[in-house]
Amino acid sequence: MSTDRSRIKLLVVDDEQGLCAGLQEALRREGYYVDAVPDAPTAAQRSKDHLYNLVLSDLKMPGMSGLELLQQVKGYHPDTMFILMTAYGTVENAVEAMKQGAYDYLSKPIDLKRLRVLVEKALEFQALAAENKELRQRLNPRSEPGLLLGESASIRAIAQLIEQVARSDVTILIEGESGTGKEIVARAIHDRSCRCDQAFITVNCAALTEPLVEAELFGHVKGAFTGAIATKPGRFQLADRGTLFLDEIGDLSAKGQGDLLRVLEEGTFRMVGGSQLVRVNVRIIAATNKNLSEAVVQGRFREDLLYRLQVVPIFMPALRDRAEDIPLLINRFFEHFCARHKRRQKRVSSEAMDLFQRFSWPGNIRQLRNVVERLVITSREPVIRPEDLPQFMSLEAVPRDGFTVRPGVSIQEVEKVLIQQTLSRVSSNREEAARVLGISRRALQYKLKKYGLLRPVLED
Q1: Residue 267 maps to which CATH number?
Q2: Do residue 384 and residue 418 come from a single domain?
Q3: Residue 161 — φ and ψ, nearest 5°?
Q4: Reduced to 3 DSSP states, what percent helix, strand and coil does the chain have, rounded to the nearest 5?
Q5: Residue 425 sits in a domain of what CATH number?
Q6: Per DSSP, which regions of 262-367 are E strands?
Q7: Most buried residue, 56, 185, 260, 380, by most Cβ within 10 Å?
Q8: Cα separation of 120 and 405, whole Å?
Q9: Tens of pLDDT, residues 15-51
Q10: Strand order in the sheet with 200-204
Q11: What is the pTM of this model?
Q12: Contact indicator for 278, 318 with CB cutoff of 8 Å
């Protein structure tokens, strides 16, 4: 997403004129371009004439509700994000809003800090979705080959695995470094599943503090605690009949792990302050950038929960481990950002592309994307050359057939990376990989199990 917020257009819709003006001013102070209107019909007409990145709308308004407005706007601008506001906070309204395509909702009175966070997250997701629209099209078996923006063996194997598991309800754990595209894979699985027309609800487990875990996951009834002025659904209710994506599951607190395990085992839960058992039909996909097997050994993650989540594991390789995909990614990003910023198309010289492929990319695809956008803005020439690249790329480039070893990394971690790179770059065939590594196939099998690499994506 562009860092120039003045290019981002928001629309505030609320029949309470004071609140409407207050929200408009608060968001303008954040640097956004913000329009405000007092009713949904005016907002619908305004949205026909203007493309808004995000609409912040009241749910209950005279004449036309926020849900009806959402349906109209999504009809001609499907990528416009919606955040709905409600003073009623009923489970039914909130669930329906999410199912109809709202990114999230806010309870009144509005917490401006939460508003700012939600708007930023919604816009980040919108940018990510725009760049990966072609990815979702490629996941369709009737479309062109070349899945997941890459032609490497590891990406082809992941795409094949998505095909195999998408239409089942099996629980999936996606592992990989930050920036490798774990949420994109989760959404691809949802989009290919029988639940594709239902909600895809995301929970950032790292943001769930101890007191908030139960209420956020399972909701609370009115009066359950101080400040609970209305019944509020949890993420499990919002994801009913759809998919619940538990991001950064490795950061979930001990209490949260216990609560989650109980729901996975029993299939039911109680809302905070409620006495009635609630049963929902939810498909669970979790993701982590941590080594959960090590976390289990260290006592920071429950082993029984890991087994529940890791029915089908998917490992997202780091970008440095699939350098052959970088030219394709770069070309796609240049096409996207040149169109977005109205710049002429650029190409990368062979010398610059060599540096792109030899850089270690600690931030993975997200970092690559940001570098390409920077080059679109700052480079005036149609050809990107080595001198145009950020200085850190030249200083930290590594040999094409090597990988970096950071100080403090254990020998076991180096061995794990070496095995991963051999399987992804040299050969996905275990017998051939064992020969290259100079060990027996049986020894390789043992090490794959030891390092948690014994995954369907690596099968012969």
Answers
A1: 3.40.50.300
A2: no
A3: -65, -40
A4: 50, 15, 35
A5: 1.10.10
A6: 268-270, 277-279, 283-288, 312-315, 347-348
A7: 56
A8: 35
A9: 998 999 999 999 999 999 999 999 999 999 888 878 8
A10: 200-204, 243-247, 283-288, 172-175, 312-315
A11: 0.58
A12: no
